[in-house]
């Protein structure tokens, strides 16, 4: 059993949900290494402040001495890597930080894992490494790797490095590939929180292209339980797909959000499409269901309402993340 877990990127949306869960459900000690980029927010972990099983280190997974010192000092025996540049649109504006963190940072973690004889490593990856689907079909773990954006290319490269470390050096490692997450604390550059906050302020809701691109939505807590099940039970060297079985076109999501918020559809504005925009993602997660006894538990409609309510009930968090640097990005991205 793992005693001291290094979680990287734990101040982001999914990493923070994972840390809250593990501290609640287990007696494992957690060290969170996060460089606090624009997406890393210590406020996401306010609930666990003062927990003696939790330690925060501000720094980058690209710093080998720091990662080694953490592994030594805290006697780390497991690593889960959430740390990443995670937004496709930003990767189109500048791919460099995506390669540096997602590929370079993963390599540092893998090398340190070998050196320190880490007992288990999990790479949090994404369904985007499979590229885009047509009208039908689902991504399985053996679908070809065909990433289309600099973000997904960087995640695919990292996945290949993990597999190479398993095969070449015998590292005990697993990979999860999950679909689109939603839930509390998601940074409002991603579809759902962006639309909720814009609608609340009666701002335009920018829909890329024809709005008919399809994503498979999963509640963030279901993703976290899938990561934990994979960490505990997954077979080394294997990939496990995780998905919510809730395929929706973007326009349907946005119209549902407007209904929940009681705002008019006239706020919807069709804008220029994302370059290289993947048309459809859909996940076959039957391997995780049968081998890990995991399945998504949240109903999409209920999860969406509770997510909207979370944003409505947390105006301070929303105000803090929608200030300064965020607005510069927003203006650059959406000229509407
Ligand atoms: P996020 O952008 O909200 O958080 C990323 C976190 O990583 C931030 O706290 C940031 O400060 C930290 N970070 C970035 N660079 C770092 C570095 N060099 N060193 C240390 N920390 C660094 O991302 P998220 O949505 O929580 O995604 C977490 C992981 O899950 C990512 O690996 C992403 O690729 C993957 N994923 C996300 C989704 C999704 O829908 N959001 C779906 C599947 C997989
Ligand atoms: O599939 C998993 C991936 O999901 C993760 O690996 C990524 O980290 C995560 O960001 C997400 O990627 P997407 O590109 O699918 O998510 P995003 O929220 O950026 O966009 C969802 C869809 O909504 C996509 O088809 C683009 C569209 N969109 C997005 C924004 C921000 C719009 O139409 N308008 C927008 O303003």
Describe this structure in words.
The chain has 336 residues and is of the alpha/beta class. The chain has a single domain (4-334), classed as 3-Layer(aba) Sandwich (Rossmann fold), CATH 3.40.50. The chain contains twelve helices and twelve strands. The protein has helices spanning 13-25, 64-73, 88-93, 96-115, 150-169, 191-200, 220-233, 250-261, 286-292, 300-313, 315-321, 325-333, and strands at residues 4-8, 29-34, 54-58, 78-81, 120-126, 173-178, 180-182, 205-208, 214-219, 239-242, 247-249, 268-271. The longest helix has 20 residues, at 96-115. The radius of gyration is 19 Å and the shape is globular. The N and C termini lie far apart (53 Å). The structure holds nicotinamide-adenine-dinucleotide and 2'deoxy-thymidine-5'-diphospho-alpha-D-glucose (DAU). The site of nicotinamide-adenine-dinucleotide has 31 residues, from helix 1, strand 2, helix 4, strand 5 and strand 7.
**Can you give the mean pLDDT?**
97
- The CATH class name reads Alpha Beta
Spatial gap, N to C terminus: 53 Å
The tally of structural domains comes to: 1
* Strand percentage: 15-25%
CATH topology: Rossmann fold
| CATH architecture classification | 3-Layer(aba) Sandwich
Detail the poorly predicted runs: none
The number of distinct helices, counting runs of at least 4 residues, comes to 12
Q: What's the number of extended β-strand segments?
A: 12
Structural class: alpha/beta
């Amino acid at each position: 059993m793992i005693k001291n877990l290094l979680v990287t990127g734990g101040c982001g949306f999914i990493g923070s949900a994972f840390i809250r869960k593990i501290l609640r459900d287990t007696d494992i000690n957690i060290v969170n290494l996060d460089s606090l980029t624009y997406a890393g927010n210590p406020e996401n972990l306010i609930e666990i402040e003062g927990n003696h099983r939790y330690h925060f280190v501000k720094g980058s997974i690209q710093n080998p001495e720091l990662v080694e010192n953490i592994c030594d000092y805290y006697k780390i025996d497991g690593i889960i890597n959430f740390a990443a540049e995670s937004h496709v649109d930003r990767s189109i504006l500048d791919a460099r930080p995506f390669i540096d963190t997602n590929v370079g940072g993963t390599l540092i973690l893998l090398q340190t894992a070998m050196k320190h004889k880490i007992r288990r490593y999990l790479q949090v990856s994404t369904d985007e490494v499979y590229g885009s689907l047509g009208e039908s079909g689902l991504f399985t773990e053996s679908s070809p790797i065909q990433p289309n954006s600099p973000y997904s290319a960087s995640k695919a490269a990292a996945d290949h490095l993990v597999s190479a470390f398993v095969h070449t050096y015998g590292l005990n490692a697993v990979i999860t590939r999950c679909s689109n997450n939603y839930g509390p604390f998601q940074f409002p550059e991603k579809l759902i929180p962006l639309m909720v906050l814009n609608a609340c302020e009666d701002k335009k809701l920018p829909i890329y292209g024809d709005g008919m691109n399809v994503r498979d939505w999963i509640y963030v807590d279901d993703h976290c339980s899938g990561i934990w099940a994979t960490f505990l039970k997954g077979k080394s060297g294997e990939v496990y797909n995780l998905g919510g079985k809730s395929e929706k076109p973007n326009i349907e999501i946005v119209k549902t959000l407007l209904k929940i918020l009681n705002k008019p559809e006239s706020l919807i504005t069709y804008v220029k499409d994302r370059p290289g925009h993947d048309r459809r993602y859909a996940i076959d997660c039957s391997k995780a269901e049968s081998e890990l006894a995991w399945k998504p538990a949240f109903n999409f409609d209920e999860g969406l309402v509770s997510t909207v309510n979370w944003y409505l009930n947390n105006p301070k968090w929303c105000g803090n993340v929608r200030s300064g640097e965020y607005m510069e990005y927003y203006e650059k991205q959406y000229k509407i």
